[in-house]
């Protein structure tokens, strides 16, 4: 084999997956069809909201400090929503933590998290900044990235995949398509991609305007033809950022976004004759909603937008893709090394497909609410806006969009099984999260004898014998997968089912 795994796509999801594979001891090559990393002196065209599962994964891998420092807004576990009491000027602070169908959700409407709970939100970061963090991490792990290289064909058999590029052929054990919504890998693999066609077109651009005063720079402005906003979270001293949404299908997605296109869109939604004299950087998107019927066919797998696409509202796509990468990486590494059977990869689709389907349903609901026109749609938006202005409504929606509910249906009665393990403080002065830094499973054993059973699995497991401060006098044992989800637990004295759980998730003993 030239490589164990070839990943098509060097976006955040592809790079995150490559880092996970390298932690698992896998030789990985990432290829990217774009010759240069997209960068602009005006910053990223998009902000990306990070949800609870993404923050959890970044924390386990030691990437959270870099993300927090680069974020435009961050809501950590110590975040306190601003008081809803009027200030000296008699006005309440307008701090928003997100939106549903364009209806803003105020921070002061959220219920604070209870003891041991995650905060419902996370933060907002420019996509370019997030990509730069993943690129640095990939370089530290010696991930090989080739840019300006496209997959043109592949053939697979029971043992390998032969991947063809324009001027090269590589033989690898596995091929992963992380190459976006119009994935070449998915198309060549013949994996069905059913769903619904788009109903709106969004455009974002940094532009020069010769008459900016004709536009209203005070949040989203609505009209019968669509909506627009000037400025936004990344607003600064440079040229204005404009964002339009029109409820018509997009034009040719491959055509460049021109000044004339942005100007025409702005004029339609604003009802003005504003003039765009220059486009510095621009992008176009739509709400096409599709999901692959399976995320694996033989030795070919899909990850991120290659497996699912939907409206980008709320930044759910990035989080969904990062969740895919963290779920797949350790499993594919174990299988590639021969430590676990291929059947372990069947759990990838089984665990991630339902979460992708849920995100798509919520995305479709937002599109339906925002795309509606007329008195009935206006009345519905007023009702939803009223609900989002209550603690119950705001907290419910933010917790759902924030991913606090996400878990996997794993066997066992312990309350945390199938759920993300919190960063528990331990009685040796450390916490649990750093034990996941190397991408291995973690076994917590406070006098239960679980360590003796797990010794047969060798370096596939990080052993922790310190006791959680929350359970100072309790004998307990817990097996946590490399992605930080609890797979097995026992309390009291015996460890029934541990050997079976270890074999299920880490393969047979050495």
Topology of this protein?
Blueprint: E1 3-8, H1 12-23, E2 28-32, E3 47-50, H2 52-60, H3 64-70, E4 73-74, E5 96-100, E6 103-106, E7 123-126, H4 127-140, E8 144-147, E9 153-156, E10 161-164, E11 169-177, H5 184-189, E12 195-196, E13 201-209, E14 221-223, E15 226-230, E16 241-246, H6 259-270, E17 276-286, E18 289-291, E19 296-297, E20 300-302, E21 308-309, H7 316-336, H8 346-371, H9 375-388, H10 391-401, E22 441-445, H11 450-454, E23 461-464, E24 476-480, E25 486-491, H12 498-506
Parallel strand pairs: 1-2, 1-11, 2-8, 11-20, 22-23
Antiparallel strand pairs: 3-7, 4-7, 5-6, 9-10, 10-11, 12-18, 13-16, 13-17, 14-15, 15-16, 18-21, 19-20, 22-24, 24-25
Helix pairs in contact: 1-4, 1-7, 7-8
Walkthrough of the structure:
Strands 1, 2, 8, 9, 10, 11, 19 and 20 form an 8-stranded mixed sheet that branches. The protein is of the alpha+beta class and 510 residues long. It is built from 12 helices and 25 strands. The protein starts with a strand and ends with a helix. The longest helix is centred in the last third of the chain and has 26 residues, at 346-371. The model is unreliable at 86-90 (pLDDT under 50). Strand 10 and strand 11 (169-177) form a beta hairpin. Helices cover 29% and strands 23% of the residues.
